[in-house]
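Session log. Operator J.P. requested a structure for one protein chain; no other inputs attached. Running the standard single-chain path with token output.
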Amino acid sequence: MIHRSFIPLLAWLFALGAAQAQLIVPGLLKFETYTNITGTPITGLTEDPRYPASPSQVLYLTAFDTRTAFPDDSHENYGGRITGFVTPVLSGNYEFFLRSDDASQLLLSTDETEANLAQVAEETGCCGAFEDTLGGHPR
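Structure written below.
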């Protein structure tokens, strides 16, 4: 569990499946896609020479769910990254879950810097349904 008291959290999702200026829009998450990424490991995306500076497409999501941009299964062989801020309305403990079609990682930061990112969830393969991997709790 993550405990934060009204601190913006930078959420990053790396999911396998021209440089853009940083734009922070309240209520939206930035979804960058990179086409022609094959294989399952996250390194297929992170080792691609276009990553992170030159995504193939940039979309904005209204929910932390790529189905709001890609509503069906017609997108294959791409990598994606979701970035944005999450501001808890109440201080307390929060659990974060992750599900993807192939490997993915969820990283959170206590501020806007990449230096403070910490991985809080991971899927190493395909299509797990919130499997128990850490101490009896779904991740």
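Operator note: The beta strands are 2-4, 9-16, 29-35, 57-61, 78-86, 92-94, 104-109, 118-123, 132-134, 137-138.
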